[in-house]
Design goal:
The chain has 272 residues and is mainly α. 53% of the residues lie in helices and 0% in strands. The protein has two domains: 123 residues, no CATH class; 96 residues, no CATH class. Helix 1 runs antiparallel to helix 2.
Length: 272
């Protein structure tokens, strides 16, 4: 996926290996291999696989054939195939009358040239393929089926279990950075789950690096979030004020710190 300032980390390396394995298995129609790997990738990146469409994902077909490519080609080969497909299309005399086809080529090239978008495309297309192969249910669920254990007949009296008080589980406490990203509407439930899974798999990787690697924010925006984290922790601003100020930065109006000052929520002494 996206490179971070610290280079490829464990999540990066695992995802690269799994992506290569997925595409190789898909290329040779290895249903079992594809299903195994796609489940592992889904654990790492649940945010890249949206819920199945209500129409059964009839339109979720692979984009590789549009560029004359196999699904297991390298990123360099994707770019070469895209440029070749565009050149061939432009040689056609009636190309101007085939704008829809031309736009599909542009879309395919854009999606497959971006590693993260390509993986999302592969997961969606593979899920459709697995449904067609009857490897998963029509609902597109990737969760393994749980086979119920048959009850063992016995003639012995089973003592009644004492009733226990029903307790409501406490809501899991998330790192402040995740709460901030949620409040700023940068991430949603799927992205939160992806970060939680990745933190559990590779706890040695800082959360900041996972967020940057996923491309949720830029380096500059992360710096503003870190300032906001300090201001929140010290009680100088509220989460609502942070969300408003970060909205200004995310939409290109002004930096978060400037927005806080202009709105009168923060004075310049806070940065001294």
């Amino acid at each position: 996926m996206a490179e971070t300032s610290g280079g490829a980390n464990r999540i990066e390396l695992e995802s690269q290996i799994l992506c290569a394995s997925l595409r190789q298995s898909w290329a040779i129609n290895d249903v079992k291999g594809v299903l195994t790997v796609v489940r592992q990738l889904y654990q790492l990146f649940p945010d890249l696989l949206p819920p199945p469409r209500s129409d059964g994902e009839k339109n979720a077909t692979s984009l590789y054939p549009l560029l004359g490519l196999s699904c297991d080609v390298s990123q360099t080969a994707v770019l070469s195939g895209y440029l070749r497909a565009i050149r061939n299309f432009q040689r056609v005399a009636n190309a101007r009358d085939r704008r829809d086809e031309y736009y599909r080529l542009l879309d395919a090239g854009y999606i497959l040239r971006k590693p993260r978008l390509r993986l999302s495309h592969d997961l969606v297309a593979v899920r459709t393929w697995l449904i067609e192969q009857k490897a998963i249910g029509e609902d597109g669920s990737l969760e393994p089926e749980v086979v119920p254990t048959p009850a063992v007949a016995t003639h012995e009296a089973v003592p009644a279990k004492p009733q226990q008080a029903i307790t409501v589980p406490m809501e899991e406490k998330l790192p402040l950075l995740i709460d901030m990203l949620k409040a700023c509407r940068v991430i949603g439930p799927a992205e939160v789950q992806a970060l939680k899974n990745q933190m559990a798999i590779a706890p040695e990787i800082p959360l900041k690096e996972l967020v940057l690697s996923a491309g949720y924010v830029t380096d500059t925006q992360m710096q503003s979030l870190q300032v906001g984290e300090y201001l929140l922790s010290s009680g100088q601003i509220s989460m609502h004020q942070l969300a408003v100020a970060m909205y200004d930065e995310l939409t290109g109006m002004c930096k978060m710190a400037e927005s806080l000052q202009v709105r009168g929520w923060l004075n310049t002494q806070s940065f001294s």
